[in-house]
Write a structure and sequence with these properties.
Layout lengths: L1 E5 L7 H10 L4 E7 L18 E5 L2 E4 L3 H12 L6 E8 L6 H4 L1 H11 L3 E8 L14 H23 L7 E8 L11 E3 L5 E4 L2 E5 L5 E5 L2 E5 L6 H6 L3 E7 L5 H8 L6
Parallel strand pairs: 1-2, 1-5, 2-4, 5-6, 6-7, 8-13
Antiparallel strand pairs: 3-4, 7-13, 9-12, 10-11
Helix pairs in contact: 1-5, 2-4
Length: 265
């Protein structure tokens, strides 16, 4: 296999480098990732300035742009061979429910899917509260061990995924709860659908020392819809969530409804 790795945590992030080590045993792997954290960058492209690429070491490149920029530059300019799979991650923190709209991690994989390449977005859902998992203290050793377990799952998934037919322009969004570190079987998973989450107090308004207002976008008091078979339900139950996501955003039910309505003015 030829595998392209990217992310939104940046080229020096723990998750992508542990995954690089793991995948090197089964594939030819190249990292092309942002030069720094680009979380919540969604599917943005940089079109107002030139982009710079830096080869940090053999097969590891940084791009001073977004995750989508990195995947584009990798496929069209850096890689000598078109990748069989694009894998984005392993992200620090979950990307479930509506996170997929904003996530740079998911968007990097989405760009691979746009190009017709099999793609996977992978996130480690860490034990830090926020409603995703029971809040438990975890050490740096626990975190690294969780990343390594997650990387083994991703390596197995990549081998299976590469050998199977799959609908074009579809990616897998994988969320791995950190609680797997405490389970003998690290690879209990569930095929899921996208859940629904709500942020309350999404925009925080403050006053700076000069008396001017400023705003910080960051939600709290997270709540989730109780949806059977959702990614949130699986992760909260301590299972790996694997959600297929496709790029056709057409609402076919609404299409049928609209056909029965006279929209002329």
């Amino acid at each position: 296999m030829n595998i392209l790795l990217s992310n939104d945590d940046g080229v020096y992030a723990t998750g992508i480098n542990i995954l690089f080590e793991e995948l090197n045993g089964v594939a030819d792997v190249v990292i092309v990732a942002p030069d720094r954290e680009r979380s919540a960058s969604s599917h943005s492209l940089t079109i107002d300035r030139p982009l710079r690429v830096n080869e940090i070491k053999p097969n590891i490149f940084s791009v001073d742009g977004t995750p989508t920029d990195a995947v584009n530059i990798a496929v069209h300019s850096i890689l000598k061979t078109r990748p069989d799979i694009v894998i984005s991650g392993i992200n620090y923190g979950g990307n479930i429910c509506d996170d997929v709209i904003y996530s740079g991690t998911v968007s990097a994989a989405m760009e691979g899917a746009v190009m017709g390449i099999k793609s996977i977005a992978v996130s480690l859902v860490v034990n830090k509260g926020g409603g995703y998992l029971p809040k438990e203290p975890s050490s740096e050793e626990d975190l690294e061990a969780s990343f390594r377990k997650a990387a083994r799952f991703v390596s197995n998934l990549a081998k299976v995924f590469n050998g199977k037919g799959f609908p074009k322009h579809t990616l897998l969004n994988v969320n791995i709860p950190q609680t797997i570190i405490k389970k003998k079987n690290a690879f209990e998973y569930r095929i899921t659908k996208q859940g629904k989450r709500y942020f309350e107090d999404f925009v925080v308004e403050k006053i700076d020392p000069r008396g001017r207002k400023y705003y910080w976008i960051w939600g709290k008091n997270i709540r989730f819809d109780d949806i059977s078979g959702s990614d949130y339900e699986a992760v909260h139950d301590g299972l790996i969530s694997v959600t297929p996501i496709h790029l056709d955003m057409t609402n076919y039910k609404a299409m049928e409804n609209l056909k029965n309505i006279d929209l002329s003015l």
